[in-house]
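user: can you give me the structure for this one chain? C-alpha cells are fine.
assistant: on it. calling the predictor now.
[tool input]
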Amino acid sequence: MDAYKEKFEITDRTIFALGLDIYTNYPLTPDLLVHELCHLKQQERIGVKEWAYDFLENPQKRLEFELEAYRAQILSVKDRNQRDQIRRQSAIDLSSSLYGNIITRDQAFTLLKV
C-alpha cells in the first residue's frame, strides 16, 4: 500500500483488490463487488505483480483496467436510473486524483457508456 499511497490519494473509503483479497473499511454494495472482482480476474489473467506494476507506472494500462472494471460494475445494475447514477459517479471517480487524474470527467463519462 505504501507504493500506492505515494502516487494516489488513499482515504479510509478507498477500496483495493490485490491477489485474493479485497481491502475495504466498509461493506461493499453488489455493484462495487463486481468492480473489485473484475480487478482480481485481471490480476489472475496477467499476474498480480505485472498488474500492480502497470497500475502504478502505466497510466494507459491503469485506465484500461479501470474502464473494464467500471463498465462491468455499471452493467451489473439492472435499474436504468441507478445505472446512470453509477456511471456519473464513476466518471467523477475515474477523473479524480484517486487514479492520478488520468482522464477528464467528460472523457470518462463518454468512455463509460455501456
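assistant: here you go. The longest strand covers residues 16-18. The radius of gyration is 13 Å.
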